[in-house]
Write the structure tokens for this entry.
Amino acid sequence: MNLSKHDPETEMEMNMTPMIDVVFLLIIFFMIITDMSQADLEELTLPTASNAKEDKPDADDFRPVINIHIDGRMIAKREVLYDPEDDDDYKKLKAYLGDVSAMMEKEHFNKEEGTGPLIPGEALLIRADENTPFKYIQKAMEFCGLQDVQIWKVQLAASESEDKDKE
């Protein structure tokens, strides 16, 4: 048996290509399984409602969300649209709602007859902390009705009441 001895001066090289391929596959895997539809949701304590239904948004659909914190800050896509301590007078919120309205699919006001003005057919989701003063929620809803916005469908987020689970 002729076994050659390893020359200690010979450098060994490791092929890194398979390891890089595996790392890229893992990155792609986690990107695919991560639920990006929940990325716009801030950490809030939602009010409870006995008739609340589980929210199951379609990841492919356009879905605007505004989060309103207890101090009145309004946040969308991790950007502060309104802060009560700033004097911007809701300018960013108005601009955001105008952009959202422009991106929504339009449908006729009278769907059956296909007549009337074209208005956004999708809903804006407003998520507010349970202790948020209503004046902030009301202000966001008022801006949805502005002439250059016209978002007529608004959903208010709520969590299921605990009493419902005990039944």
